[in-house]
Amino acid sequence: HAIQGVSASQPEFLTNQVNGFPAVSFDGSDDFLDLTSDITSEALTAFIIYNQDAAQTWNGLLSTNNAYFAYNDGISRFYDYSSWSSKNIRSRNGFSIYSSSTDAGGSASIDIESDNFTATQTRNGFFPNTGSSVGYRQLGSTHYANGFIPEIIVYNEKLNTAEKNIILSSLAAKYNLTSTMNLYSYKTSYN
């Protein structure tokens, strides 16, 4: 569950934003949601559907006790974990599916996917966040999201490739988006 007790910092719930589904709109200046239970797992897989509303260098999407997921508009990158592992993986406008996963431990690989791009990076530690939130970065400089988030899914383990592909394909079908693996593409043609 996610909450925000300060009315001025509450993001707006909007209906019919992507393929008939609602999304939460963050204003880029002070909107965010605190998670009522912190995400403390070092091993993690996260799926985020996101659409940036306006140009803004940093967009904090999800902070956990060990990781930070953000979209940087100026260089079209997602960042996560303490080593700032990143990749130019998103260059299109509109809603997009982003996922990232890593194992527990001091140094591990990070699998990053978005649209039709995949990459594997190495991380060398974790962020020492004190809480978990949606829509802003909790550690160091504060960076708020300026856009729409219809769905975030977080697992407290690194999912295997088959599990990730099933979830990515399901989200792509649900929101009519591009995924790195489209298991349902046969439904678009019957030849």
- Shape verdict: globular
Strand order of the largest sheet: 1-4-13-6-7-8-9
Distance between the termini: 45 Å
Rounded mean pLDDT score:
78
Helix content: under 10%
What can be said about the biggest beta sheet?
7 strands, antiparallel
DSSP summary, beta strand count: 14
How many helices? The count is 1
* Structural class estimated from helices and strands: mainly beta
Poorly predicted ranges: none
- Into which percentage range does the β-strand content fall? 35-45%
Order of helices and strands: EEEEEEEEEEEEEEH
Gyration radius over CA: 16 Å
Walk me through this protein's architecture:
By secondary structure, the chain is mainly beta. It contains one helix and 14 strands; from the N terminus they run E-E-E-E-E-E-E-E-E-E-E-E-E-E-H. The strands form two sheets. The chain has a seven-stranded antiparallel beta sheet with strand order 1-4-13-6-7-8-9, with no helix packed on it. A seven-stranded antiparallel beta sheet has the order 2-3-14-5-10-11-12, covered by helices on one side. Strand 11 and strand 12 (117-123) form a beta hairpin. The longest helix is centred in the last third of the chain and has 15 residues, at 161-175.
Q: Which helices and strands appear, and what pairs or packs with what?
A:
Elements: E1 2-3, E2 12-18, E3 21-27, E4 33-35, E5 44-52, E6 58-63, E7 68-72, E8 77-80, E9 85-88, E10 96-102, E11 108-114, E12 117-123, E13 133-134, E14 146-155, H1 161-175
Antiparallel strand pairs: 1-4, 2-3, 3-14, 4-13, 5-10, 5-14, 6-7, 6-13, 7-8, 8-9, 10-11, 11-12
Spell out the key features of this protein.
globular, mainly beta, single chain, 191 residues, 7-stranded antiparallel β-sheet, 1 helix, 14 strands
